């Protein structure tokens, strides 16, 4: 697929995200979870899923480029089944949580509630890295009230991190 001069094709943009065989392995593992999680999340409670998805760090130093790649692959993986809707935030969050933890990034998985356009209650899940949302803006998550969160070790946190808007004012 080609676009206007100066713009790369979708395939070229995807290929640019892969810089090593390690990236290919990560993508395969992410997409494997992306195929399993849509069913698993209906059978297993979220706290149990967080424990299953927890991975102890396998690295001593953090790598911001690799962390960004993990977040991107998690987004792509969650969209694998539901491309038109943009994917499912819980699936994306669980995948990012798993591989960011493995990468030594100490992620926190947060689940919050907010109100939709019609006033209905809606949920959202996101991952925090260093207190900031990974792969989405602070403004996007600030409309949700965090209800529960999972620490980097997979355990339920006794207190929920403040919403992004609250952190900006702290």
What report would you give on this structure?
- The protein is of the alpha+beta class and 170 residues long.
- The chain has one domain (10-169).
- It is built from seven helices and four strands.
- The protein has helices at residues 10-16, 21-43, 46-53, 64-79, 89-102, 138-141, 164-169, and strands spanning 108-115, 121-129, 132-133, 145-150.
- A four-stranded antiparallel sheet has the order 3-2-1-4, with helices on one face.
- α2 crosses α4, α2 crosses α5 (89-102) and α4 (64-79) packs antiparallel against α5 (89-102).
- The chain starts with 9 loop residues before the first helix and ends with a helix.
- The model has no long low-confidence stretch (mean pLDDT 85).
Please give a handful of descriptors for the protein shown:
single chain, 7 helices, 170 residues, globular, 46% helix, alpha+beta
